Amino acid sequence: MSQQAAEWQRQGLKIALVPTMGCLHAGHLSLMHKAVALADRIIVSIFVNPMQFGPNEDFGSYPRQLEMDCRLAEKEGVHAVFCPDAQDMYGPSFQTKVSVANLSQGMCGADRPGHFDGVATVVLKLFHLTRPDVAVFGQKDFQQLAIIRRMTADLNLNIEIVGCPIVRDPDGLAMSSRNKYLQGESRNQALCLSKAILAARRLVAESQTEISADTVISQTRELIAQAGAKLEYAVVINKDSLQNESVITEKSVLAIAAKIGGKVRLIDNARLFLERV
Ligand code: AMP
């Protein structure tokens, strides 16, 4: 991969990287579509990264479908699918960790200790291996995108980081490889995340006066509980700093994580001002 990327670089071709864990869906394909518009050579990495999974998480059962993924990527105009082995990425003496300290603390970082160190470390390795000029990520993983932007700036990586909007199923559910785990009633219950976000946006749009984050969060908690899901967090944060906000501003994002059917952890988020989304 390295040699191919270096060759493309020598030829003066612009390289885009789309990092994924595979089991590609329309959300991933939208990132590839964006990458095709931005660069001459598109690399998609498919790597279920053991370093970003906790001991009781779904690393072993995470859906994998490499052949199908390669076909989908090829159709989007991708030039290379990079799917390294875990042993190649992390040799027996591996011991380095990249940590974007503050941004990794709350939200998913609080629920999944060490997760974002795993993400930052593997993304930096992928950047070195694929030498991209631009890398494309989804806003679905809002905290991850902020962390990658921070790491890229802090380490002077000279890579443009592009964020793309969340792609949803027609009924509103944010697409995710983990939606494969949802069967029957769980698929229905999973809609509580996007419904709670819609309701929050409506609340903000219809309010004549300043509205507090607590009001939005209480309504969100209620809707998630009514659906029978287990809320892991609901926060109103500033889109740039990820700091909690006490009143809703134009920069406010509502971010939610909830467990569906007792075991499938899903996340979703959106800006709260309708006209700005
Ligand atoms: P994953 O394979 O889940 O690690 O995701 C790989 C990339 O795809 C990340 O940048 C995600 O934010 C992005 N992504 C995942 N789901 C969606 C979606 N529904 N819409 C847009 N981007 C997404």
Describe the structure.
- With 277 residues, the chain is of the alpha/beta class.
- It has 2 domains: 2-164, HUPs (Rossmann fold), CATH 3.40.50; 177-276, Pantoate--beta-alanine Ligase, Chain: A,domain 2, CATH 3.30.1300.10.
- The chain is 38% helix and 18% strand.
- The chain has 10 helices and 8 strands.
- Strands 3-2-1-4-5 form a 5-stranded parallel β-sheet, sandwiched between helices.
- Strand 1 (15-20), helix 2 (26-38) and strand 2 (41-46) form a beta-alpha-beta unit.
- Helix 6 (115-130) crosses helix 7 (142-154) and helix 9 (191-206) runs antiparallel to helix 10 (213-226).
- The chain is globular and about 60 Å long.
- The two termini are 37 Å apart.
- The model has no long low-confidence stretch (mean pLDDT 96).
- It binds adenosine monophosphate.
- Residues 20-21, 27-28, 30-31, 137-138, 140-141, 164, 166-167, 174-177 line the site of adenosine monophosphate (AMP).
Question: What is the fold's blueprint, element by element?
Answer:
Layout: H1 2-10, E1 15-20, H2 26-38, E2 41-46, H3 66-75, E3 80-82, H4 86-89, H5 107-111, H6 115-130, E4 134-138, H7 142-154, E5 160-164, H8 185-189, H9 191-206, H10 213-226, E6 230-238, E7 252-260, E8 264-271
Parallel strand pairs: 1-2, 1-4, 2-3, 4-5
Antiparallel strand pairs: 6-7, 7-8
Helix pairs in contact: 6-7, 9-10
Adenosine monophosphate binds at residues 20-21, 27-28, 30-31, 137-138, 140-141, 164, 166-167, 174-177.
